[in-house]
Amino acid sequence: MPNLAPTANTPGLHVIKPSPSEPATASAVCHCGASATAKGDAQVGALVDGWNANHGSAHEKGAAS
Question: For the whole model, what pTM was predicted?
Answer without folding.
Answer: 0.82
